[in-house]
């Protein structure tokens, strides 16, 4: 009987640890693809995840988690529900803006 109790306690502890490990997974909204956003974020399906990626590609990286509310179909409630799962790291500027920014900066003159 003692063996059964110890085994049961071990199983329950393992399930709790596995559940907390899954719940702790975070996603960087500036680098994740639509599949990863769909998998990690709560109440964000494939269509909303793709909308996040499209918005990011068109407007550049997100500066805060709250900016997700600017994406059509994503509200502040969804952002709040996912706050602990969202990371905002450095991302790439969209191709159109990167070219404009690079063209507008003067190049330094090399002196000899």
Please tell me about this protein's structure.
With 112 residues, the chain is mostly helical. Helix content is 54%, strand content 4%. The chain is built from 5 helices and 2 strands. A two-stranded parallel sheet has the order 1-2. The protein is elongated and about 85 Å long.
Give descriptors for this structure.
2 strands, 112 residues, two-stranded parallel sheet, mainly alpha, single chain, elongated, 54% helix
Element order: H for helix, E for strand: HEHHHEH
Main structural class: mainly alpha
Q: Averaged pLDDT, please?
A: 82
**Count of runs of 4 or more consecutive helical residues:** 5
Kindly report how far apart the N and C termini lie: 87 Å
| Beta-strand fraction estimate | under 5%
What's the gyration radius in Å? 21 Å
* Helicity range: 40-55%
Per the principal axes of the C-alpha atoms, what is the gross shape? Answer: elongated
Largest sheet: 2 strands, parallel
Which spans have pLDDT < 50 for at least 5 consecutive residues? Answer: 98-104
Strand order of the largest sheet: 1-2
Number of strands: 2
């Amino acid at each position: 009987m003692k063996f059964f109790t110890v085994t049961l306690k071990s199983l329950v502890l393992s399930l709790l640890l596995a559940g907390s490990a899954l719940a702790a997974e975070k996603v960087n909204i500036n680098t994740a693809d639509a599949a990863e956003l769909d998998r990690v974020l709560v109440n964000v399906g494939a269509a909303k995840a793709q909308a996040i990626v499209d918005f990011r590609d068109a407007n550049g990286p997100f500066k805060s988690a709250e900016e997700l509310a600017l994406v059509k179909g994503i509200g502040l409630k969804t952002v709040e529900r996912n706050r602990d799962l969202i990371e905002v790291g450095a991302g790439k500027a969209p191709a159109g803006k990167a070219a404009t920014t690079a063209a507008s900066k003067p190049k330094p003159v090399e002196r000899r």
